[in-house]
Write a structure and sequence with these properties.
The structure is a homodimer.
Chain A: H1 9-16, H2 20-28, H3 35-48, H4 54-61, E1 66-71, H5 77-92, E2 96-101, H6 110-119, E3 124-127, H7 134-142, E4 146-150, E5 160-164, H8 166-178, E6 186-190, H9 198-211, E7 221-223, H10 228-239, E8 247-250, H11 253-265, E9 275-277, E10 294-296, H12 299-314, E11 323-326, E12 329-331
Parallel strand pairs in A: 1-2, 1-3, 3-4, 4-5, 5-11, 6-7, 6-8, 8-9
Antiparallel strand pairs in A: 10-12
Chain B binds a DNA duplex through helix 2 and helix 4.
Chain lengths: 336, 336
DNA sequence: TCACGTATCCAAATCGTTTTGCATGACAGG
DNA sequence: CCTGTCATGCAAAACGATTTGGATACGTGA
């Protein structure tokens, strides 16, 4: 047991009988070092358990080897999977990942959290699915951090983009309901108004109805929040309508689970009297009963892609902004 | 829009007509500064949007204002809630939180992850529920980081401890099964052998049986893993026993959900022919059907407590090691 | 007037790396 | 033997903040 965190590069240099410069070169490989010296240095590093001080290194190199992920709700399993995907790729590159929550309501808001993060001089930031303002994006870009946005369009601002084929996914799902299943009155429960991917998914819902020559039943559309609680509120609203729906399309799985809560509480049979569908296919989607018909959104893969974009940029890629679109897939289960 | 991240303390000093020293003193408050100068400096900071470089500051102060949480499974909702609790307290103190996953099997193992974290010179580390070796704990303590361990005993090593009353919680739960419900053959599915809180919970199960004058039915005890998949494997094992159980007590909710999967697949009525119970009361516990009878483990509060301990230590508390024990509560739902 | 505190502010040293420009020695070609 | 090229390693200057020991000016009391 040595002094642990206390050994510095000059100690290693002394132990190996060389200068600190040489130790640095051995470690970074930026200049050639003879095999014999290299071996002595590497041995000394191992023996003393040397680990470079990240503050000192960061001060000199102007990099922190740290990337951040900002999401509106850290307990949403979609975001958790996302984080896991990012972390896997980042860790392999020696990057540390910090996940921050910037709740849509209550708690520190997005600009405040971004301020904290830019103050930290992160090398890169993945911005989760928000209704982010242009000023927020410019703040990140201006801080020098590479930016990857999730679930929006490339034209909306600086940085690269990763997104699922949200509109197409929802369209395919609603097509099933309209076509083979023959549901007549199909309602929609979105998340917070104006927050992606609510808009994209609503658009898919609208398109599928339009294809069948139907209009959106405005009185059966509710915008609440991307949570189980939001789903409860939205479902209550829709079911109290003068002419209630026989199917409810939800903007994500949590909302759908909330809708199921309401159906059960009111003794409404699902899918007999009411169909319910979700989006994302989080783990819980297959746990609830009836199991949710939903659309697979490959959260982990989205995270991996985002991290890869970030890593490429950090490795010097200065090409034009890129947009990665991941495929979707409808999963039919018992709820519709 | 200024150069953003680029403005440094001497720029602020110049703008305010003082020295960098004075700016530092205004910001830290470590030495008195006249009201007039303070106002000029604060104004300059605001106008230029100055944010101190964390690397430079860290190099000088030897602190990173960063704390870490290490968990075996980042997608387990218990751990997510934990992270949220820690982050809330840490954020309020200006500390950044990094959450790292060190899978029990596959992926980077605990010592490797801890190596990465100690290399980062974190100010504090919360170690999730692992079967951590003494050497791992000493590594953390030796790195200078404050340590808070979760779900173990204070005597097991350095650092403070936060834990739920695991043994008591499980004992109360199993008492219900034995007593009012009158289940005869009660099995147990644990997580990975030797990993807390599996042992504590098993102990509660054993005690409740002992109180009733019963021995543990060894052939109905399985140790798998704290996941849904682990639950499936364990349940299959128990149900294939010569004399199968009429109740299965699971070491956490994910395991219980896996057990429910098996019961459904085999057409076994729950709770009619088989009772299933969990532990932790994660969100999903009330989503599945039948809803899980389980024990509330206040994950978020555990996180908050852990972070508070850490913050106290960082603020100079050098008292003896502390142990915080949080209460439990049995929740009766449909599955038993 | 002198000695001495007090209130303000500043200059310079320091934290532990990385990086750049040189110095040295060896070696090859003429 | 002389001269240019490599290969190798070192010294010193950053990086941007914090902290310590003074310096300066102004009262205050004797």
């Amino acid at each position: 047991m040595h002094g642990s965190g206390r050994v510095k590069i000059v100690d290693v240099a002394a132990a190996a009988g060389v200068s600190a410069t040489t130790v640095s070169h051995v470690i970074s490989g930026r200049r050639p070092v003879s095999a014999a010296t290299r071996a002595r240095v590497e041995d000394a590093v191992r023996r003393l358990g040397y680990q470079a001080d990240p503050s000192a290194r960061g001060l000199r190199t102007q990099r922190t080897d740290t990337v951040g992920l900002v999401v509106p709700d850290i307990t949403n399993p979609f975001n958790t999977e996302l984080a896991a995907g990012i972390q896997a790729v980042a860790y392999a590159r020696g990057l540390l990942t910090v996940v921050c929550e910037a709740p849509m309501t209550g708690g520190p808001q997005l600009p405040a959290v971004l301020g904290q993060l830019t103050a930290r001089r992160l090398d890169g930031i993945v911005l989760g699915r928000f209704g982010a303002r242009r000023a927020d994006l410019d703040l990140i870009a201006g801080s020098g951090a590479r930016l990857v946005r999730l679930g929006t369009r490339i034209a909306d601002g600086p940085g690269d983009v990763v997104r699922g084929a949200e509109t197409e996914g929802m369209r395919d799902l609603v097509r099933c309901l309209v076509g083979e299943r023959g549901y007549r009155r199909i309602g929609f429960i979105g998340g917070e108004a104006g927050v992606e991917p609510g808009g994209e998914r609503y658009e898919g819902y609208r398109q599928a109805l339009a294809e069948a020559g139907r209009a959106v039943p405005e009185e059966l559309v509710a915008w609440t929040g991307f949570t189980r609680e939001g789903g409860r509120a939205g479902a209550a609203l829709l079911l109290d309508a003068a002419e209630p729906p026989d199917a409810v399309v939800c903007a994500n799985d949590l909302i759908a689970i909330g809708a199921l809560d309401v159906a059960r509480a009111r003794g409404i049979d699902v899918p007999g009297r009411l169909a319910v569908t979700g989006y994302d296919d989080i783990d819980a989607a297959s746990m609830v009963s009836p199991a949710l018909t939903t659309v697979v959104n490959p959260a982990r893969e989205i995270g991996r892609s985002a991290a890869r974009l970030l890593v490429d940029r950090l490795d010097g890629d200065t090409g034009p902004a890129r947009e990665v679109v991941l495929t979707h897939q409808v999963v039919r289960r018992a709820s519709a």
